[in-house]
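Quick start: what a row looks like.
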Amino acid sequence: MSSVCSLVAIACFVSVAVSVADMICPEKNFDKQLKVIFSLLFVIASVSPFIKGTITFEFPDISDISVNKSIDYMEYTDELIKEIENNVAQGLKDELSEKNLYIKEIYASVNISDNNSISISKVVFYPKNDDDGAKIKNEIKNILGKDTEIIRGT
C-alpha cells in the first residue's frame, strides 16, 4: 500500500513541477514541444516504480480457480431433443392453423442419429373438432412424409 502512496505522491509532484515549468516558460513558440516533453516526464515518473519493481501487483494463481466446464453429453442431447420436439410441434400447429385445422395439443418425437441427422418418428395430435381428425392426419402426412407415425389422440 505504501508503494501505491509513493506512486501517487510522485505523480502529484511531477504534475506540480510540470505546471510550474509551463507557467515560467515565457515564449509560446515551443508550447507544443514543451507539452510533449512534460508529458513524457510525467509518464516516465509514473512508470518508473513499476520498472524498478517497488510496486508489484499479486494476482491469484490460475490453478486456484476451479471451473467445471464439463457438460454431460446425454443431458445436452436430451435438452436438444426436447427443444427440437417443441419447435416441430409448434411449427405443425402453425401450419395447420393456417389451413383452418385447429388442434388442442400436438406432440412430436424426434430422433438424432449418429451422423447428427434429425428424424421425426412420431406425431400425436388432439383435434379441437373431431370431424377434422382425418383432415389433420392427412395434412401432417403431406407435411412430414409417409415414414412418420401419426397418431390421433382422444
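That is the whole record. The first strand starts at residue 103 and ends at 112. Residues 73-98 form the longest helix (26 residues).
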